């Protein structure tokens, strides 16, 4: 036996190279057993409570309040008092100071908040650490910079704050949506009553400790928790001057009906069914990464997700083949494992909705592909899924699934791509992949979508306005545009 053979005998080469688990420390965040409602800078003991869980294990995390109409009323009063007794009249530079403080504290405590966001929401720690937290801090930094420059943002228009803003946010990016809502509202001089989603209240409640550390005056930000009933109470409260809502189109429409004729200001950021369009001259490997990021990022719980893939017919086969191969390498599992690509589905209810639409896709005749994948026994999980042979009329091509499910369609010419991309009641976002700059510009002109990415997908920046057309809602968040819904002008 040669020397080399003897060595191989002792240390056999493994047949596969698996990742060892790399869990983030869960004890980075100290949870309380029970949370109150944060009203007027104090914790109020709620009359009713419910349990919030970890969707990856179904284990309870804490008891939180289900705000009653009387408690919502207290929160609105606290917001009004804070607005009138100082917040709307302190120097704008002072307001900047608080926002800068909040931004810095969020950066300092980012690791703790990232763990909490993954625990309560099911998203991979890699995403909460690298996307949600840096962007949430960036939004506070960005709007801190505008707070004392409103006169320059809107020259000759004499901007004034509106009063108390009621803000209702969803469960897919709990802390980031809080930042998108609170930062521009405070920068413009308003006070806030915010309700996080029923399933993900914890980062918003934990954020109250950041407000305490920043010494924000009491009542400027009030956090009330609970299900849709609490949201509906905020919407109809006569003391609220403006509603900012992110969530489903159905609830958005109900809010719009409720507010008709009241004079309350409204912005709606609703669903989407975005087309991610791949032309035959695109860099295919990069495009495949963009497709994966477009739909499997955050389990597809993304309003601007690239959920309809439009591939030019001539490259259909290689794209689908590369995509399937890439799918097999996605790691689904423990949200707190740093190797995880796809975490848990946010709730039983959302899992049922995804399963129902996937079953409808199979029934209508689409071809399903799911890579081999072992899912944890407890918790809510869905295997990353691709449908081919999809017709435009299928429910999976029309309805928002809000899960890790991609529908693939084809096109031959740019005009056909535009027509198919725009064949949706939504209009939030789109992606274009091509080497030709002129084609990017031509497509961007014709696509009816608020945000269009070129040779990338799901990129966000606080300076860039975000929002939709048609049933995706109205109003913009981010950038100078994001201040306008919180101001009135003389
Ligand atoms: P949703 O019901 O519209 O939830 C959004 C927020 O509104 C939550 O805080 C929710 O509370 C609250 N809410 C519910 N009913 C209300 C009412 N009548 N008045 C005022 N506020 C109300 O959405 P969802 O049930 O979480 O998700 C359903 C679907 O919406 C998803 O499958 C997805 O298609 C879409 N969605 C879109 C986005 C987006 O970013 N555009 C985000 C999330 C969901 P609860 O948490 O208690 O329901
Ligand atoms: Mg709901």
- What CATH calls the topology of the largest domain is Aldehyde Dehydrogenase, Chain A, domain 1
Cα Rg: 24 Å
Number of beta-strand segments = 19
CATH superfamily of the largest domain: Aldehyde Dehydrogenase, Chain A, domain 1
In round numbers, the mean pLDDT is: 96
Give structural notes.
The structure is a single chain. The chain has 16 helices and 19 strands. By secondary structure, the protein is of the alpha/beta class. The protein folds into 2 domains: 26-270 and 472-489, Aldehyde Dehydrogenase, Chain A, domain 1 (3-Layer(aba) Sandwich), CATH 3.40.605.10; 275-462, Aldehyde Dehydrogenase, Chain A, domain 2 (3-Layer(aba) Sandwich). It has a 7-stranded mixed β-sheet with strand order 13-14-15-12-11-16-17, sandwiched between helices. Helix 3 (92-108) runs antiparallel to helix 5 (125-147). The relative contact order is 0.13. The structure holds NADP nicotinamide-adenine-dinucleotide phosphate and magnesium ion. NADP nicotinamide-adenine-dinucleotide phosphate (NAP) binds at residues 168-172, 195, 197-198, 227-228, 231-232, 235, 246-248, 251, 254-255, 269-271, 303, 350, 353, 400, 402. NADP nicotinamide-adenine-dinucleotide phosphate is lined by residues 168-172, 195, 197-198, 227-228, 231-232, 235, 246-248, 251, 254-255, 269-271, 303, 350, 353, 400, 402.
